[in-house]
Automatic annotation (TrEMBL):
Record's protein name: CRAL-TRIO domain-containing protein
Chain ranges of the CRAL-TRIO domain: 47-207
Transmembrane residue ranges: none
Protein's organism: Triticum turgidum subsp. durum (Durum wheat)
Record-linked SUPFAM superfamilies: CRAL/TRIO domain
CDD domains: SEC14
Length: 303
């Protein structure tokens, strides 16, 4: 898919009444122009060891496809630490994954299924969430603000699995604050959610942390870790970016080390109020595990 198709797709999405106005579309297109997003897939994160470190601390991967042909992404929300690179590098990696999804993964899914595929499914693993995750709210809110304002309607359903015990109490507080369209996309499943997920995807497409009851985010010895730099999906993505950089080398010169500096959209007042409420409620939870990281993602990533 070329960048022209991406821009036309954005026009279609923002034309829906529930997604905003012409001004929001212009904000999105201006954001892409100002930050050179159309060329982000020609800017590899160098050296490769740095990219490996990002993959080890921002846990995300493609595990397969749903029965309807949609890509299935796994997110290790609770065990992502964001502590091996700068915010700019993590944001660059996240945007590259979004662009690769829109330009390569979704068109490929459409071709395989013989029909248009425009959305994906996300399985969010909450294993390991602690109150100390409050330290990551700024990082996660940055990523999710980019998604909400510039990549709308790319996720059909968010499946929350392996939620800690305290999740239930906090969810009751946060759920009424969410937009109705967002709440409709979130499904909190019991434990690893295997049985429910098998209704929408085959066993082979289940994230490794959902395949065994009580397995959490650990994988068995014969499982391929979808988060790993060595996983075929991440190897294909990284090689694609390097190939695009080589193609552009004659016109812009060789790829340079250094992260992109992306201007982050400012969340609206409603989102800011939700985040403030979440942090206040989580700080009131004395002892035990918190769930700040899960809620920053649930609240803002949305549609």
């Amino acid at each position: 898919m070329c960048t022209k198709d991406i821009h036309e797709g954005l026009c279609c999405v923002f034309s829906r009444p529930e997604n905003g106005t012409f001004l929001k579309l212009m904000d999105c297109l201006n954001w892409r122009l100002q930050n050179e997003i159309d060329s982000v897939l020609a800017k590899p994160i160098l050296p490769a060891d740095l990219y490996r470190s990002i993959r080890d601390t921002l846990l995300v991967g493609l595990t397969g496809y749903s029965k309807q042909g949609q890509p299935v992404y796994a997110f290790g929300v609770g065990l992502s630490t964001f502590d091996r690179a700068s915010v700019n590098y993590y944001l660059q990696s996240h945007i590259q994954m979004n662009e690769y999804r829109d330009r390569v993964v979704l068109p490929g899914a459409s071709e395989m299924s013989g029909k248009q595929i425009n959305t994906c499914l996300k399985v969010m693993d909450m294993t390991g969430l602690k109150l100390s995750a409050l330290n990551q709210i700024k990082m996660l809110s940055t990523i999710t603000a980019v998604d909400d304002l510039n990549y709308p309607e790319k996720t059909e359903t968010y499946y929350i699995v392996n939620a800690p015990y305290v999740f239930s109490a906090c969810w009751k507080v946060v759920k009424p604050l969410l937009q109705e369209r967002t709440k409709k996309k979130i499904k909190v499943l019991y434990g690893p959610g295997r049985d429910e997920l098998l209704k929408v995807m085959d066993y082979a497409s289940l994230p490794h942390f959902c395949k065994r009851e009580g397995s959490g985010s650990g994988s068995s010895s014969d499982e391929v870790d979808c988060y790993s730099y060595d996983h075929p999906f991440h190897q294909e993505l990284y090689n694609y970016v390097k190939q695009q950089a080589l193609r552009n080398q004659d016109s812009v010169g060789p790829a340079k080390q250094g992260s992109m500096h992306v201007r982050v959209p400012t969340p609206d007042l409603e989102e800011a109020k939700i985040m403030e409420t979440i942090q206040s409620e989580l700080h009131s939870l004395k002892g035990g595990d918190g769930i700040s990281r899960s809620f920053s993602r649930i609240t803002i990533e949305g549609p």
